[in-house]
């Protein structure tokens, strides 16, 4: 039975195929005068639907192709480039009989037809170019694959006539210091004695701006504009000079002399100065010298009353104390550099004992950025190392993670230690046993703790006293700072 049914099916199929071959197919389709079977109607609808689907799917891409290419290939073929017209015949007809013009035309350069324009790029070529452009933009390794050939320049030599003025400058920075001197020559003359113009001081600005003379000159000018507005008042209200001939912004540190000393709180006469002196946490220890000759400064940052600082709005007095402290350290190392004919920098110890992590995270955003901006913009290369001791649990681990994104120079400059910091004072702060013994007892030394700042809490009347005293604010805007920096 199965063989008979299969034979009948094959016979029917052959018969239908023979009938289909006999039908007229003038338009490539099935005849309309005969009744179509169900299979024929399904096949027809499927072919029509596929054509409509192909048209719907390809029409957006064809539209994009026309948009990006500017014109179709058919219009490009119609607009074939025409050769440039030779104008020499027209010139000859217009100037017939002029022998001089004919001679000029005979010796003139012949016109050459321009090269035909390149064929328009397809949509896929433009898409590939766009993807490669994005990759080169965001992947720096693909921007330039040519190996960089190092340029070996001869080391600059110091002429004999410039040896006294550039003494102590490393050979690799001689050219940068000289370029900085040329850029700042008119401004140094204008500043007079207040100018930080000696080569060792210019070297600090150069190192602070990655040895770029243009950026160093901008920092130098911004620094002097800021110093004229802030340094004299901070030094006069919070201390005095032991030598009566010295004054703020004079040339004594350039000669190796610096005699300013901080006054006691009881000796400060202004309300803003008294609050600033109470809020101060840093002290300079001139007899504690590192093995490179730099002085040591100690900052009891953990004892700063951050909640009271935010409550009394005492940021202005805090910045006054910071300006006096940074100026004291800068002029101390500047005078030492002039005496020793080499670059001398300080070593800073931050004591975080008593620090409240919660209060710090809550209030540090109010005074941290302004204080950091003053130190980074206007006091170049003052510190050689920063050693943080008595850090709370977890801070040292957090610094280890953050330091992974810093360069080696910054990691070498900053070190965090917990309660056991004796080795850090010896290895990182570069203090020998004799220098450590001169530190206060709270820092592992033998000296009195009275050498440290007392750091009392802010009074609840400081805000009212500042408002009632009528004294001008300390911090002023530097008009030209944005242009210089």
From TrEMBL:
Residues 1-99 are annotated as: Disordered. Residues 1-18 have a biased composition (Low complexity). Signal peptide: none annotated. Residues 272-451 form the CRAL-TRIO domain. InterPro entries: CRAL-TRIO_dom, CRAL-TRIO_dom_sf, CRAL/TRIO_N_dom_sf, PI/PC_transfer. Residues 71-80 have a biased composition (Basic residues). Gene3D superfamilies: CRAL-TRIO lipid binding domain (3.40.525.10). It comes from the Eukaryota. Pfam families: CRAL_TRIO. This is CRAL-TRIO domain-containing protein.
């Amino acid at each position: 039975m199965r063989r008979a049914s299969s034979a009948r099916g094959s016979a029917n199929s052959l018969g239908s195929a023979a009938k289909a071959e006999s039908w007229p197919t003038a338009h490539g389709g099935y005849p309309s005068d005969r009744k179509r079977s169900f299979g024929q109607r399904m096949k027809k609808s499927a072919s029509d639907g596929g054509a409509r689907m192909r048209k719907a799917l390809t029409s957006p891409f064809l539209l994009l192709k026309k948009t990006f290419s500017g014109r179709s290939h058919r219009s490009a073929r119609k607009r074939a480039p025409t050769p440039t017209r030779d104008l020499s015949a027209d010139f000859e007809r217009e100037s017939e009989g002029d022998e001089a013009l004919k001679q000029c035309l005979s010796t003139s350069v012949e016109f050459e037809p321009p090269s035909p324009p390149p064929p328009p790029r397809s949509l896929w070529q433009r898409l590939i170019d766009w993807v490669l452009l994005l990759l080169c933009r965001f992947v720096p390794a693909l921007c330039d694959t040519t190996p960089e050939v190092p340029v070996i320049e001869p080391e600059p030599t110091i002429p004999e006539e410039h040896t006294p003025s550039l003494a102590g400058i490393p050979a690799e920075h001689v050219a940068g210091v000289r370029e900085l001197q040329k850029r700042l020559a008119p401004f140094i003359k204008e500043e007079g004695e207040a100018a930080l113009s000696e080569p060792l001081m210019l070297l600090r600005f150069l190192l602070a701006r990655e040895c770029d003379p243009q950026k160093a000159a901008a920092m130098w000018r911004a620094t002097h504009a800021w110093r004229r507005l802030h340094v004299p008042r901070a030094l006069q209200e919070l201390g005095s000079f032991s030598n009566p001939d010295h004054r703020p912004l004079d040339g004594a540190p350039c000669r190796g002399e610096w005699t300013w000393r901080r006054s006691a709180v009881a000796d400060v006469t202004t309300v803003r100065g008294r609050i600033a002196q109470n809020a101060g946490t840093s002290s300079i220890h001139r007899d504690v010298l590192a093995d490179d000759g730099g002085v040591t400064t100690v900052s009891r940052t953990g004892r700063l009353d951050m909640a009271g600082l935010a409550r009394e709005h005492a940021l202005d007095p805090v910045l006054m104390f910071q300006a006096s402290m940074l100026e004291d350290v800068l002029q101390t190392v500047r005078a030492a550099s002039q005496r020793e004919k080499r670059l001398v920098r300080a070593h800073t110890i931050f004591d975080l004992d008593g620090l409240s992590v919660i209060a710090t995270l809550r209030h540090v955003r109010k005074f941290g950025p302004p204080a950091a901006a003053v130190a980074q913009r206007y006091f170049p290369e003052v510190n050689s190392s920063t050693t943080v001791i008595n850090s709370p649990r977890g801070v040292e681990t957090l610094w280890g993670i953050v330091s992974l994104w810093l360069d080696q120079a910054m990691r070498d400059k900053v070190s965090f230690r917990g309660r056991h910091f004796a080795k850090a004072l010896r290895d990182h702060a570069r203090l020998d046993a004799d220098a450590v013994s001169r530190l206060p007892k709270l820092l592992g030394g033998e000296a009195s703790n009275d050498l440290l700042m007392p750091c009392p809490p802010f009074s609840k009347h400081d805000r009212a006293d500042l408002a009632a005293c009528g004294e001008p604010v300390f911090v002023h805007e530097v008009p030209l700072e944005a242009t210089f920096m």
